[in-house]
Amino acid sequence: MQLTRDSKVLASALVLTFLLTGCATPPPDTSQATKSPVQATQQKQNVYTGSVVGKSNKAKTISISVGKDDQAQTMMVKFDDNTKGLNFAEQGEAAIITWEQRGEDQFATEIKPKLAKLPEGVTEIKVDEMYALVENGTSMTLVDARPESRYAQGHLPEAISIPVPKLKKMGEKALPKEKDTLLVFYCGGPT
Questions:
Q1: pLDDT one-digit tens code per residue, 145-162
Q2: How many Å apart are CA 100 and CA 43, to the nearest integer?
Q3: Three-state secondary-structure class, residue 43
Q4: Domains of the chain
Q5: d(CA 32, CA 48)
Q6: How confident is the prediction for the chain on average, in pLDDT?
Q7: How far apart are CA 154 and CA 93, in angstroms?
Q8: DSSP secondary structure code for residue 162 in this structure
Q9: Which residues form the signal peptide (predicted)?
Q10: What are the phi and psi torsion angles at 50 (to 5°)?
């Protein structure tokens, strides 16, 4: 079969393109290969989720532990007057920090509390529902699940302190003996 003039030009152009640019695929991006799984995942989304290790108002930095067990790493971000939610950057509290890259530094743009997921069989009640229970004199045990230091700063009347670490360690032994009474937990924010 004889090639037409256009086909010859097209074939020549294709061969010339391969000779000048090569036909191999570009090498894979290895920039993520030197990063830990925590850094690769978190930096791709510009979000750090974990427990706040510390906050320095003088240096304007927040340290947050990201990852679990032996994979955990402490990451540091800076903050400024435009950072939203700085009140959620409390040592020991779970937080979600959204950040942006500015030169070589990561700056927190927004900090939110990391919300707990309710276990199966547990229901959430709203403030107005709780208010109605109190007004109606409903028999209940009110549990403050925040750290003891936060409980000592102030708590709802009649509430007892059972911080989450204590509950995890002791299990049901930490709970009140009365099993027929409504049990209501609250913490430092919505769950």
A1: 999 999 999 998 889 999
A2: 10
A3: helix
A4: 37-113 (2.40.50.320), 127-186 (3.40.250.10)
A5: 17
A6: 79
A7: 17
A8: -
A9: 1-24
A10: 170, -160
